[in-house]
Amino acid sequence: MTPETGLEVVIAVQSLRNGVFDLLAQVLHLMGNDLFFLAVLPLIYWCLDRKLGLQLIFALIIGIACNDVLKSIFQTPRPFEASSVVIPLVEQSGYGIPSGHVMVGIVFWGYLAYSLRVRALMIALVLYIAVMGWSRMYLGVHYPQDVFFGVVFGLPVLGLAIRAIEIVPPFWARLSLTTRLALLTFLTIVMTVMLFDTEYGTIITGLTLGTGLGIVLHNERAFFAPPISVQQKALCYLLGIVIMFALFFGTRLLIGALIEEATTLYLLMRIPRYAIVAFFSISLYPMLAQRIGLLRPPPMAVPSQPR
Prior knowledge:
Blueprint: H1 3-14, H2 19-30, H3 34-48, H4 50-74, H5 79-82, H6 100-116, H7 119-138, H8 144-173, H9 177-195, H10 201-216, H11 230-258, H12 264-268, H13 270-291
């Protein structure tokens, strides 16, 4: 499909605009943004399944990192940048191929479906990706070929994430604390250098740093089991998410007051900002929530009987 053909498809899709489609496309757009994942991941990690929550964080980081690298390689424009006929219904920066919303959606929700082994989730994932692909064209921010390559690259990256999550934890567990900190520092430097100029590079670098520190510095006080009752789950989540977003928006206001936006330093400061939010979510809040009785301590291992 040529860019001209793709542009005609986008124009045809946008010609069907109405209020219901506008709302649906806007909601789907929000479901691919950082605020959505910042709200969903703590719910899973704190209240449902701690291990699955960590796995989904790493799947998300892998998906976004691979998408950013691919966008930097292809460097294709978006439809609204190529033609004034296309109306961008949302603000969207960065390059086009492959669609991040589609590709990252496959990796994140695909890993969830793979982990839970529920057929209905697989069907829902296919429908979700189809509707998400439509919404990216409807919003005027992606060509059909961007969506196509989002699927083409999303599936192998999902496989990469599944394999990495199987291999890395056992390897990580054998390392000393000093080696873990050294590897995390090295990874943060590499990601900063390689992904700094990409759309979400400093964001995922910060998430990687904060999540890694939370795991590296994890001790027995920070391990936990989720609440049992729905009321406890709701209270645990609401308290944690209020504090987390207070940190998220508070640090943004502080950085904005001290540093001019769109500067290199401002972009770099997103790394410690997202690292603070991730570290709080992974380690600090679970310890706090256990102290006030919102999270339970993990079940004690039953000692083996001597023979």
